[in-house]
Amino acid sequence: MNNNRPKDHNELEEIEINLLLEGIFRYYGFDFRNYTFPFLNRRIWNRMREEKIASISGLQEKIFHDPFVMNRLLDDFSINVTEMFRDPSFFLSFRKKIVPFLRDSPYIRIWHAGCSTGEEVYSMAILLHEEGLYEKTRIYATDMNESVLRVGKEGKFPLHKMQLYTKNYLASGGKKAFSEYYKVQNENASFHSFLTKNVVFAQHNLVTDRSFNEFHVIICRNVMIYFDKVLQNRVYNLLHESLGLSGILGLGSKEGIKFTSIADDYEEVDTFEKLYRRIQ
């Protein structure tokens, strides 16, 4: 039996990627080892093209000796596809089905996990403001990537996106003129500071960090789809630990807890919009 047979290209590529991810975890502390392979493969090859590096092993050497390359790869791995009132029907359902439940609470803690550049955080702040709940709410907006958190704190978004965001806002049940919430500065829309006075932006890695509070609402949308089943279960358990009894969990349209280890601990509030209430 020949144990020295050459590896085919795909097998070698997978070995190189696994070594790269293990090295990143050991040296930088970021754990991408259970992200889905197609997602990682696309992002790694994109970074290699940008850096003009011919092999994955060459990229590994580069990131260990140039932290700026690591930062760029971290940006590649960050999930930054977002917009204000993304999937307006989710926010409309939240307004109609969750807000009445929250009115009786003396205070409200909300965690936006994997908040990216913060558009959904501002969306939630606007919704709660219009429903008279914002003053008693503290929103924790977290992401593993500090650079996207800085964008969120600044609250400036490209002006050309406001047409789409206005359309989303109105479809989500918005009650005012969306333009009341920002002022125009050159090519940007700068959102009013009162929308972040009750927001804490902080770095938190869903993969490696632990629970840090107990929440009435956790929003973690369009994040799990990039994780394999092992990591999904781990993160679902983290969110479960962080959610109080009768708390609300909001997921993305392509996500769900049906086949997870914590499925029996929840009841569906809105099946289509993936809103759940913890019952045990």
Automatic annotation (TrEMBL):
Descriptive protein name: Chemotaxis protein CheR
SMART domains: MeTrc
Annotated Gene3D superfamilies: Vaccinia Virus protein VP39
Domain CheR-type methyltransferase: 5-257
Pfam families in alphabetical order: CheR, CheR_N
Signal peptide: none
A GO molecular-function annotation: S-adenosylmethionine-dependent methyltransferase activity
SUPFAM superfamilies reported for this sequence: Chemotaxis receptor methyltransferase CheR, N-terminal domain, S-adenosyl-L-methionine-dependent methyltransferases
InterPro entries: Bact_Chemotaxis_MeTrfase (IPR050903), CheR_C (IPR022642), CheR_MeTrfase (IPR000780), CheR_N (IPR022641), SAM-dependent_MTases_sf (IPR029063)
